[in-house]
Amino acid sequence: MLPVAELHGVRPGELTPRILESTQPLVLRGLVADWPLVRAARTSQQSASTYLRRFYQGMNVVAMLGRPEIDGRFFYNDDLSGFNFFPANVRLDGVLAELEDHRNDECPPAIYVGSTTIDTCLPGFRAENDVDLQGRDALASIWIGNRTRIAAHYDLPDNLACVAAGRRRFTLFPPEQLANLYIGPLDFTPAGQAISLVDFRQPDFERFPRFADALPHGQVAELEPGDALFIPSMWWHHVEALERFNVLVNYWWRQSPGYMDTPTTALMHAIMTVRDLPPAQRAAWRQLFDHYVFDADENTAAHIPPAARRVLGPLDADATRALRAQLLKRMNR
């Protein structure tokens, strides 16, 4: 695998479209090195925990907890009928205390608080620890835990992941490696996103032989406190937290208007309505999707007067709302 391309010397207020709209991953060394949380974490785990407690107002968070024997890998159980961890609604200060209690354990339980919205859980934190995304409407989240492994998955939004404490290793694959990553169920997932069933630490090439074909296309980056990684939309990424205490702050944003639904809805609906058609009908629908969706351009509806194009014309918030209502009516008949 190749190393992710790196940029050095970029500051939190200097993120350009070249970075934020890149179609390739980028490591931004030292981007958030001056954050107070990063400085506290470099002092000690206790200093970082104390700093986070300054902003905590008492709301519960969802923690994923696993026995020591899962070795930090949050995943399915053996037959994929359930998971090897359980969620718990707990106080964040309690999680921080638990992480401190198990800091010196050789085989600690796996503890992971993921994707927690910063502005609701830690109000005021971003006044001291933030980046300038040039007007993008981003969701800022915090991730806290000990040594954990999160299976490869993709996210629809673009992602800027900033390491505030500990170290993290990211292993990334471009979207076209989908077939070589052996993705699990789409509608029953550990944390909402479909994941690769391959254990990246110990790949089983007998069970997953095509994963060997993916490896030459992979990219890997190891981040220190203060480093950041830009992950483009739809890139598969496997995330390992390498220290006994790790904190990551990430920002998600979409390059499409907020009123657009997630394409996952269309994928699931197509599985329900198109996938199992007879081959000739499925081929005909492929032509329709190519014509109206994947290859659509200004010529697709040029023969229709603009006022009569309806869904074939440009969509806005009102038109999308009306189309969604029409679809819901059809589905609920």
From TrEMBL:
Q: Which organism is it from?
A: Pseudoduganella armeniaca
Known SUPFAM superfamilies for this protein?
Clavaminate synthase-like (SSF51197)
SMART domains named in the record = JmjC (SM00558)
Looking at the record, the residues that make up the JmjC domain are: 75-268
What's the name of the protein? Cupin
Q: Pfam families recorded for this chain? A: Cupin_8
